[in-house]
């Protein structure tokens, strides 16, 4: 028996990367999945986003676990699209227990710069709020909401020499901070109803977002065309442990814990899976 037998999870950004990993890991623990993704590129994002074929691959991987999945191409910036996708899944499964607001972008170097700002805020912050709020009417006692933040949201970015210190990168940090605050206050409202809400903060994670030319340039601005080999040693600046990045499965394992009864009294936390990155920025405090 899995820790999530009989439950249904709604996962955004599920075509690849962390979202795919979460969908598959939840299914391995017994959950059926409603999976959505944009499935096309954005002009302000200078690396390819997930495709329809990627989302199909996620579906195949979930089905290999023996669980069922409903997929839809939907833009998290549009609550109507998300609501339609969720309704299709609800008609199939009849319930909703877990919400994973994962979808995100990194619009480093995006032009026009203010459009990169807007696309980032709309996808990461508004998209997270949309995913959670369309799900709220369907959640009952025992449900779990998990939003993906970022170690970047916890860093002191007041200095302008931080990687990604331009509109698209700054919007990423702002959006992750604000969604964390939103979930904190939401958790307080939901706690008396027995519904939990938490944020998980990954450090650099080995996904197509990290392994992209814009991110390589952000970490190695001294090079005109940095490669993965050039950037990986610099990725280590984010962590106290001697690692360049973590794997999506490291986040997925924490997701499963937060979604399960193992964490039944855990709500309102900001869970860091960051290789000790936070330790490099802050002294101990309660």
From TrEMBL:
Coiled-coil segments, which residues? none
Keyword tags? NAD, Oxidoreductase
InterPro entries linked: NAD(P)-bd_dom_sf (IPR036291), SDR_fam (IPR002347), SDR_subfam_1 (IPR023985)
SUPFAM superfamilies from the xrefs? NAD(P)-binding Rossmann-fold domains
| Segment forming the signal sequence | none
**Top-rank taxon, per record:** Bacteria
Cite a single GO MF annotation: oxidoreductase activity
- Please report which protein family the annotation says this sequence is part of: Belongs to the short-chain dehydrogenases/reductases (SDR) family.
Protein name, please? Answer: 3-ketoacyl-ACP reductase
- Originating species: Mycobacterium fragae
Phylogenetic placement of the source organism: Bacteria, Bacillati, Actinomycetota, Actinomycetes, Mycobacteriales
């Amino acid at each position: 028996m899995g820790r999530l037998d009989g439950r249904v999870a709604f996962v955004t950004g599920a075509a690849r990367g962390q979202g795919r990993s979460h969908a598959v890991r939840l299914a391995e623990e017994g959950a059926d999945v409603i999976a959505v993704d944009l499935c096309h590129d954005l002009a302000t994002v200078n690396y390819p986003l997930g495709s329809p074929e990627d989302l199909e691959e996620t579906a195949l991987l979930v089905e290999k676990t023996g669980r069922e999945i409903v997929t839809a191409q939907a833009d998290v910036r549009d609550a109507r699209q998300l609501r339609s996708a969720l309704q299709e899944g609800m008609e199939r499964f009849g319930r909703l227990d877990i919400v994973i607001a994962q979808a995100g972008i990194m619009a480093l170097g995006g032009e026009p710069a203010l459009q990169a700002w807007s696309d980032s805020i709309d996808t990461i912050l508004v998209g997270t709020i949309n995913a959670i709020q369309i799900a709220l009417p369907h959640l009952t006692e025992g449900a779990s909401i998990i939003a993906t933040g970022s170690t970047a949201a916890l860093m002191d970015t007041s200095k302008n020499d931080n990687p990604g210190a331009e509109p698209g990168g700054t919007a990423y940090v702002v959006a992750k901070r604000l969604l964390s605050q939103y979930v904190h206050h939401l958790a307080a409202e939901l706690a008396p109803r027995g519904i939990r809400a938490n944020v998980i903060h990954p450090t650099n994670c080995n996904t197509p977002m990290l392994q992209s030319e814009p991110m390589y340039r952000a970490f190695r601005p001294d090079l005109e065309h940095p490669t993965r080999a050039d950037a990986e040693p610099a990725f280590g600046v984010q962590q106290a442990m001697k690692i360049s990045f973590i794997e999506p499965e490291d986040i997925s394992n924490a997701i499963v814990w937060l979604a399960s009864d193992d964490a039944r009294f855990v709500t309102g936390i900001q869970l860091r899976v960051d290789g000790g990155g936070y330790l490099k920025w802050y002294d101990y405090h309660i």
